[in-house]
Design goal:
Elements lengths: L5 E14 L2 E14 L3 E5 L6 H8 L8 E12 L2 E5 L8 H6 L4 E4 L3 H4 L6 H12 L4 H14 L5 H4 L9 H13 L5 E5 L7 H18 L2 E6 L2 H7 L2 E6 L2 E7 H6 L4 H8 L46 E5 L2 E4 L18
Parallel strand pairs: 3-8, 3-9, 6-7, 7-8
Antiparallel strand pairs: 1-2, 1-4, 4-5, 9-10, 10-12, 11-12
Helix pairs in contact: 4-5, 4-7, 5-7, 7-8
The protein binds adenosine-5'-triphosphate, iron/sulfur cluster and magnesium ion.
Length: 342
C-alpha cells in the first residue's frame, strides 16, 4: 500500500467530466506518490490535468459533472492504517478534518480565494479555530505569528487589514499563512506564483522552501514554468493530456530528459526574461474530444511511428526515472535524430 516514507500515494486515478459536448478524461490512470519532506513538481501545459489531480487529493472534484471513476489516494497516518481519501464522503466530517490540517492548498489567484469582506486576520483565525480548540485571543495571536512567519511586516497592524489593502505578493503570502496555519503535512501549491512578477515570485519560492524545512512538510508544486520547477522541486512528474508521460529527479528532467514532450519543453524554454514559460512549443494539446489514437503526443512528435498508434507503456529507465514512450520499449535506446519521420 504505502512505502515507509510515503505521505500520499495516488493509485490509478481517473477523473472524468461529463459535459454536454462529451466526456473529458481530465486525469486518466495517474499514479504517483509524495514522499515525506520532498517537493514534488507537477509540470505540464494548460489543460493537462494538473489542477484536477490536485483537487482529487482533497476529494474536491466538482460533482455531479466531475466524477472519480477509479483510483485510491492513500494518506499515511502516524501509528494508524493509511486512509483512502477517496473512500470518504466529499463533504463529511472525516475529510473536513484532513483539509487544512493534514493537506492544504494554495491557489493561483489569491483575490478569488480570499474573502474581500473579511480581514486577513479573521480569515486566518477561522482556519485555526476550525481545527483547534482555542480562544479567539489565541487564534488572533496565532494569526499574527503566521503573518510574521510569511514575512509580512508589522503583523499586529496587518492582521486587521482587508485583502484589497494588500499588494499581490502580500495577498499570496496571506494565502500561504492561511494554508499553513494548522501545520499541514502536505501543502499543494497550484501555480501560486503565476500572477506575480519575477522578483516577488522568487521571494515566494524562497519562503516556501524555508517553511517546508522549518515546518517539516512536503510540497506538491504545480506549474507550467520550467524555471520554477528548477528552483523548487526535488522530483518531477510531467503531465500531458491527463497522463504522466515522464517522471524523474529534477536533474533527470533537466539534464537527461527522455520523453520527446519533455525534450521539446526544454528546447523551447526562453533563456532570458521570465524563465520557462511553455508557450512556444509548436502545436497544441489535443482537444479532450478529439484525442489521437495511441500516444496523445503523436501529432506533435518528431519521432512518431506506426506503433505509436497504440498506447505506449511507462518504461523504467532507472528506478527513479520513467518515460511513457515507445522509443524506450523492447530494447529501444531513446531519441535518435535520424529516426525522426516528420
Ligand atoms: N469543472 C470542469 N468541467 C469540465 N471540464 C473540466 C472542469 N475542470 C477541468 N476540466 C477539464 O479537465 C482538463 C484538465 O483541466 P485542469 O484544470 O486540471 O488543467 P491544468 O493542467 O490545471 O491547466 P492550467 O495550467 O490551465 O491550470 C481540461 O480539459 C479541462 O477543460
Ligand atoms: S510514443 Fe511515439 S509519438 Fe509518443 S512520444 Fe514516443 S515516439 Fe513520440
Ligand atoms: Mg490548473
Amino acid at each position: 500500500m504505502l512505502q515507509t516514507n510515503e505521505l500520499i500515494k495516488v493509485e490509478d486515478l481517473q477523473v472524468f467530466f461529463h459535459t454536454d459536448e462529451g466526456i473529458v478524461r481530465a486525469v486518466d490512470n495517474v499514479s504517483f506518490s509524495v514522499v515525506q519532506g520532498e517537493t514534488l513538481g507537477v509540470l505540464g501545459e494548460s489543460g493537462c490535468g494538473k489542477s484536477v489531480t490536485a483537487r482529487a487529493v482533497l476529494n474536491l472534484i466538482p460533482r455531479p459533472k466531475g466524477r472519480i471513476h477509479n483510483g485510491r489516494i492513500w494518506l499515511a497516518r502516524d501509528g494508524k492504517q493509511p486512509l483512502d481519501i477517496l473512500s470518504l464522503r466529499p463533504y463529511g466530517r472525516q475529510i473536513g478534518r484532513i483539509r487544512g490540517r493534514e493537506v492544504s492548498i494554495v491557489f493561483q489567484e489569491p483575490m478569488t480565494s480570499l474573502n474581500p469582506v473579511h480581514s486577513i486576520g479573521r480569515q486566518i483565525m477561522e482556519a485555526v479555530q476550525l481545527h483547534n480548540r482555542v480562544s479567539k485571543r489565541e487564534a488572533r495571536q496565532r494569526a499574527m505569528e503566521m503573518l510574521d512567519r510569511v514575512g509580512i511586516s508589522a503583523p499586529s497592524q496587518a492582521v486587521d487589514k482587508y485583502p484589497h489593502e494588500f499588494s499581490g505578493g502580500m495577498r499570496q503570502r496571506a494565502m500561504i499563512a492561511i494554508a499553513l496555519s494548522c501545520n499541514p503535512r502536505l501543502l499543494i501549491a497550484d501555480e501560486p506564483t503565476t500572477a506575480l512578477d519575477v522578483t516577488i515570485e522568487s521571494q515566494i519560492l524562497e519562503l516556501l522552501s524555508e517553511l517546508k524545512e522549518s515546518m517539516d512538510m512536503s510540497i506538491m508544486f504545480i506549474t507550467h514554468d520550467l524555471g520554477v520547477i528548477g528552483e523548487i522541486a526535488d522530483r518531477v512528474i510531467v503531465m500531458y493530456a491527463g497522463k504522466i508521460v515522464e517522471r524523474g529527479l529534477v536533474r533527470d528532467i533537466f539534464h537527461d530528459p527522455k520523453h520527446p514532450y519533455t525534450v521539446k519543453l526544454l528546447e523551447s524554454r526562453p533563456r532570458v526574461g521570465k524563465t520557462g514559460e511553455l508557450s512556444s512549443i509548436a502545436g497544441s494539446v489535443p482537444s479532450p474530444f478529439e484525442l489521437p489514437a495511441g500516444c496523445y503526443f503523436s501529432p506533435r512528435c518528431d519521432y512518431a511511428h506506426e506503433r505509436c498508434r497504440q498506447e505506449p507503456a511507462e518504461i523504467e529507465i532507472t528506478p527513479e526515472h520513467t518515460a511513457k514512450c515507445w522509443l524506450f520499449s523492447e530494447g529501444g535506446s531513446g531519441i535518435d535524430a535520424e529516426a525522426a519521420v516528420n
